[in-house]
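Next up, sample data.

:::
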Amino acid sequence: MTKRVVLILVGGVVALGGLAAFLVLQGLDAADKWSSVLSLFFTIAGCALTLVGLLNRPSAQSADQAVTGGSLHQIRNVTGDVVIGAGGATSAPPTAPTPAEGQGGGTQTAHGARTAGDLHQIDGVGGSVRIEPPTSSTP
């Protein structure tokens, strides 16, 4: 664990211990009223954090620690056709596709991926996607 995580855990335990001691000293009736008020504020904070998380979702692509023995393709929000050729070559139609707003969503990742072949992450393509099989060099 990093030093930051340890400090957060210790701070959380101290804060919960302090809250528990405060509620014990208040008595059962007053502690019940305090816990109702505190739960209201924690619920409002939780809803606000959920909304912030939903609205600020990054749309980034990442191949984190990918090591490939072949190709790695991350394709998102393309209005034209996509062709991934044999040997990992990617081609586009004569006019390059333009990014399209509103297609696809979320993130594409490859956390710690290690591939001995191709890895394709494709999202939000407005045209067709064709992945050509590798050509055999043996007769």
Notes: The two ends are 55 Å apart (CA to CA). Helices lie at 3-26, 28-55.
